[in-house]
Design brief:
Length: 87
């Protein structure tokens, strides 16, 4: 960012900027978004390359924790783990 660009997203401050500077900012933001989207796609591909068994195991653990009935009322709810914060 140049020193004339606002730090906060206030419309009044953007209206005071020259049109060329606003266009430059938009192009910079568009490039950053495109890079983030490319990174997301790369990460999705990496996830797809992971062994299926590890993903299934994790999903099963989550389902088990959610669907396990509690001893008090027998209804399905998420069980507190040893990592929960005690009050």
């Amino acid at each position: 960012m140049t020193k004339n660009q606002p730090n906060e997203l206030e419309p009044e401050r953007f209206n005071q900027l020259p049109k060329e500077e606003v266009v430059e900012m938009l192009i910079t933001v568009a490039k950053a978004i495109a890079q983030q989207q490319a990174t997301i796609e790369e990460l999705k591909q990496e996830i797809d390359k992971l062994p299926v068994s590890s993903r299934i195991r994790t999903q099963n653990l989550i389902k088990t924790a959610i669907n396990r009935p509690t001893q008090k009322n027998g209804k399905s709810e998420i069980i507190k783990t040893r990592y929960s914060i005690k009050t």
